[in-house]
Amino acid sequence: MYFYLILQSKFKQIFYIYFMSLLRFKVVEDAFKKKAVAVEAPAKAVSDYFGKYVFNREKMAKYLSVETMKIILNAIDKGEVLDRDIADHVAAGMKMWAMEMGVTHYTHWFHPLTDGTAEKHDAFIEYENGSNGRVIEEFTGKLLAQQEPDASSFPSGGIRNTFEARGYTAWDPSSPAFIVDDTLCIPTVFISYTGEALDYKTPLLKSLSAVDKAATAVAQIFDSKVKKVISYLGWEQEFFLVDDGLYAARPDLVLTGRTLIGHESAKNQQLEDHYFGAIPTRVHSFMKDLEYEAYKYGIPVKTRHNEVAPNQFEFAPIYGETNLANDQNLLLMAIMKRVARRHSFRVLLHEKPFAGINGSGKHNNWSLGTDTGVGLLTPGKTPEENLQFITFLVNTLVAVYKNNALLKASIMSANNAHRLGSNEAPPAIISVFLGSQISAVLDKLEKSTSEEAIVVDAKKKMKLGITHIPEVLLDNTDRNRTSPFAFTGNRFEFRAVGSSANSASAMTALNTAVAYQLAEFKQEYDAKITSGVSKEKAIFDLLKKYIKESKPICFDGNGYSDEWKTEAEKRGLDCENSVPRIFEAYTSPESIKLFRTMGVLNEKELHARNEVKWETYTKKVQIEARVLSDLALNHIVPVASKYQSLLLDNITKVKAVFPEDKANKINAIDMQLVEDIAERISIIQTKVAQMIQKQKNANIIENEQEKANSYHDNVEPFFEKIRFQVDKLEEVVDNEMWTLPKYRELLFIR
Ligand code: ADP
Ligand code: MG
After folding, report:
1. pLDDT digits 0-9 by tens, 424-452
2. What is the DSSP string of 105-154?
3. Quick check: CB of 74 below 6 Å from ligand 1?
4. For residue 421, how far is its CA from the centre of ligand 2 (angstroms)?
5. 553: Cβ contacts below 8 Å, ≥ 6 apart
6. Of the candidates 146, 163, 159, which has an alpha carbon nearest to the alpha carbon of residue 110?
């Protein structure tokens, strides 16, 4: 009772501040003392343990019959339909391997429409028939191929609202099963009873087969031997590391993944001394550990380095087939979080954890290649190869141009919005950087008349007056970091993708858009051929038309400048800034037609997925608003008033000791400070109250789209206003009283 009374009294605040500020000094001190964790390599050479936990082709050869293996590989490589019987054979082989590895459980591993992946573990055990309670390990083809997890709590956008709307997971044989600890994980798609996609993987797989079909038809114009076109993805994963003690003392980091308040550190990235700098030993040790783990999962990480912002780093693998590369990225994000804990770190995958310094992206390096080993976005050595290259390049340009609003929607999220347009990040306008050489080639092509450009020489080789491309282009290292979609020599780099995102979203939109465009190109080409135009002239005429058409998307200048925003608007590019409104691009008549024609998503799915996006947006902003109110009222205001009363005490004492004139002189600055603090506190209290009212107004809106718009227009604008006052207080309040770790403490790992 007595204790309770104390807690109720105003002492509560004082004690709280005292303990919290002590805690801050303790965690900062601890963080500085921490030493690198020693990490031993699991074996001598990476090749000894690469893919140890993956049921890859090597394991298949060992645990499956030759016949089964052949059928599986045909399904993976040629997209042939798998017979259900085969699942039994595969399951038996997988079980044998998994049990040898000490595995007891299995799970279908899928990508719901949330951040990250989902799994529900089941043990292998079953009662043996008529055995009086004895158990055996069982894993059949049925369990491998299909499951019905009671995953009713995942967002579905209304598709699963009725009682019969079950969700199924179904095996994706193109991504190998893997083991995490004691569990066999089987990559799967997640669909509703009525067949609608409830995940990221289903539309991705459909878009990959759409682009395969359309691109193969076009590639066959140049080489009839091409049977398949593969979409490649090489992701570059950026992230921040924060000491786990400091992290725990920042409720905003814990609950929202980013700092909602915090005054800039006097030194951050202005000296550019972090980028590619020596990796701190604690971090180096984490990276080594992470690499060992990644290799065991067959993730071919190759590049690691410090990024621009303090405590910011990057990992990039050797690129691979898009579906597998994306699964590996999601797996790596999960592994990163686990490994970080061993090193007393927390990984921040949020796109903008700290204001005033760079945010994190996940550059998606994208290209198309044939089963004959030709990169379709790689400048070739012969004029034919170059014509093919230019054909695919220009078609990509048209696809990006026509779908620039959709591509922006595919990368947009509440998190990523904080990154786009600030600091290093590409702006919320999609444009393409080609570099001076490619731009010159396209200009030349556009301006030349077909007579002068197409010269068929004795060896039947066609010249476009651009036969010099190979040598020049191969070392095209032209870079423009401000571009959201840049050509980088043999691929496009989609940089606007966010660090926490599932790349499937961006890759689905891009591959579908390119597939649609290639199909259109092929149709127009066929029409020309039918009317007697030569192959070369048909291509040439179409390319000329497309180059003209897609001009507005090409921009080699500074994407961060204000002039670009004005210019982009003039060019008719999508310049919408509001996240919930950007999503509307998914359900424009053009997008609906695009996804439907390519068989990737139907209208119902597109609407449902937007519902999920709006709902997620609202929830994220809502959580941030709540955390911000809590921090402002429970941490900042009490600390500031405590400091204010300290100043007042001092002022009164000065007045008691000195004659009035002198006292006033001594007290002048402190008196001003007291007034400033009082004013800031009052603004914070008023703004928080107003924000809470706006939330209440928004919360009663039933329509998800309108609710998201209301959160965007009416709630979010308060964040900056409140933060501004809080950060100003952080500057003046006694450092010893401040309860939250400051930027300068969070951002510099020793
Ligand atoms: P940078 O930071 O200079 O852009 P990185 O080395 O960090 O380059 O990452 C480049 C990424 O692009 C790697 O993942 C790499 O495997 C990938 N990549 C390279 N060539 C291709 C290609 N043809 N298609 C797709 N990805 C590619
Ligand atoms: Mg990079």
Report:
1. 566 789 999 998 888 888 888 888 775 44
2. EEEEEB-BSSSS-B---EESEEEPTTSSS-EEE---HHHHHEE----TTS
3. no
4. 18
5. 397, 400, 401, 404, 430, 431, 432, 573
6. 146
